[in-house]
Model the fold of this input.
Amino acid sequence: MLVRLKGEDRLLLDARAAARGLRPATYVSALTRCHLRRVTPLPKKEFLALKRSISELAAIGRDLNQIARAASEGGRLPTSAREEFRAMLKVCEALRDNTKALLKTNEASWSSGYVEDL
Done:
């Protein structure tokens, strides 16, 4: 299959493919599949970043359970545990915000320039 692009479009294609760590032909193939099947795929790099985030959240959840268990048994948390709890809460909020931003950026990048069928 041969596809001709205007110079400006080729520059945009190259930039977007590079931003996703893909070769231009692979990026075009993914876009075509996305359009034909009405799906929003995640490139491997972004998918792995989400998996890492989920693993980190699971580890933090286990730590929070231990802190909660200690608090319920002793009735009061030491200052160091409270500080650790606040730090983990900040990490959870940052992971949540970063994951939301990643998904929003991903969705926007795959649909940018898309024209709805008339």
Notes: Residues 43-111 form one domain. Residues 114-118 have pLDDT under 50 and may be disordered. The chain has two domains: 1-39, 43-111. The helical segments are 7-19, 24-37, 44-74, 79-111.
